[in-house]
DNA sequence: TGAATAGTGTCTTTGAGACAGTATCGA
DNA sequence: TCGATACTGTCTCAAAGACACTATTCA
């Protein structure tokens, strides 16, 4: 980075040599795709935009980076805390990672804005409070949402916005009082959400992060439900169970069993905690991505 | 993104409501880790900084994003073309993907600068020309470089700079005339390079991108040499050969054979082209990451 | 009591890796 | 001629998936 336009000897000279026409003002934001499980369904946190552009549209929570005062990870953590109203303690159980940056020209009709997108995995969280500048905030089932669906499981390297994709300004998805579902997302947030889901699906293969969606103690069937919901397909219960227990460091037994059996019958399952593995070896690969994925 | 500090009805109102103390000026750059193979070794393109800070230091090539005029991918492609002097045609054979964004406070001593890092895989390229504001530009073997080495193969999610890492200003690695090797890199570029190498090592497992380092026609032993150099370990020639040919879409035969055999004897190898697969199924997993990677 | 589920055993198939062997080339 | 290498064959082992089975729980 930081090739400068001239060769200043100090900051004053640098600023003098700086030509704002070469580098017009640019704004930097962080947007967060917060995923959680509610009633067995994958949900994403959305906020309703109180002002233009895209007034009345739903969007990913986020905000401006306080340049010079915080790093990108810090900014994302701050926004996450503000939007969810979570305590620092509760936030420690949330997984937060950088997803990628989006900077297609015109993605924000007002001015050049580059957004650094983050991805968060959270256990079942309380209903969000509507933050200052958001009209409403709510958990929204991912299914049926634009950018939801099963997604292109094999898409790669979509970290940056595709300049050929639909210009968000060419449609006007705002409306007055529809729920978050069945709504287009503001800006290029549908693309960000789609990329986030791709990343989440891949992460479940190689990391134990599925446990981040569950309470500190959980059963293997609960863990399997997370995989089934995010991957969008049923898994073989017996093989899944054996597989999870065979991967070193994935889960560790508490010695306890769940209070009740399954809702539709069956024995009470044993309880586990997340293990200390950060990567799964061997990985839990998704069942046959249809052959011919060339 | 783009939660605004107030609720303006148009751009004028937005600018009026904008408090520069809340969102001080921030600069956005792209930096590129261009990897290529030269004489069997993995090389990275570095430029010598002509001005402060870090004057005389080697750094990754990059530059400011022309806000509003180009997307991030475009900016990276433009910088790549400028620094390597490659034609548009030659650039089509180069793989370019976003690596992540780095924005730790103080990473640039002059002002808040966030850098979007890109990763490029290129076949053997000619010597770079020194760009306008770089004193020199040269290919540098990755081995022995800070951030080179075998790297932490299991590090994940290091997309953003670690605020706890060494402040680049606390050392003064500049000097007068040492080669690029044995030099600290400017800013947090050692971290970016390390992350890039981690990404490259992982990409070789799941994608056929190793072919991006080779000429359009190549032999299986040449392909194996790429894997061995980037992974830093010898592979079993026989098993590697069978594996490559068994993965659908990885390589396709040209029917020809190489002009000469190996430099130290042996039969002439058959020639292949890159296939149409974008993901490898099954993957070419690295040999035993030592057990106990928890 | 019946249906659904937790968890285990076992068999088959696939793929990774070790090893050996043959043919071909450079020096 | 010798040594190195390309490539193939074969064996073993690990892991994934299909299937079957028992035990336990809810309704």
What is this structure, in a nutshell?
With 294 residues, chain A is α+β, with helices and mostly antiparallel strands.
Top keywords for this entry?
6 helices; DNA-binding; 10 strands; 294 residues; homodimer; alpha+beta; 22% helix
What can you see in these coordinates?
Two copies of one chain form a homodimer. With 294 residues, chain A is α+β, with helices and mostly antiparallel strands. In chain A, 22% of the residues lie in helices and 22% in strands. The first copy, chain A, is built from six helices and ten strands. Chain A has helices spanning 11-17, 72-84, 88-91, 189-206, 220-231, 237-246, and strands at residues 27-38, 41-49, 58-59, 62-64, 95-102, 113-122, 134-141, 218-219, 251-257, 270-274. In chain A, the strands form two sheets. In chain A, strands 1, 2, 3, 4, 5, 6 and 7 form a seven-stranded mixed β-sheet that branches. In chain A, strands 8-10-9 form a three-stranded antiparallel β-sheet. The longest helix of chain A is centred in the last third of the chain and has 18 residues, at 189-206. Mean pLDDT of chain A is 83; it is low at 1-16 and 151-176. Chains A and B meet through strand 1, strand 4, helix 2, strand 5 and strand 6 of A and strand 1, strand 4, helix 2, strand 5 and strand 6 of B.
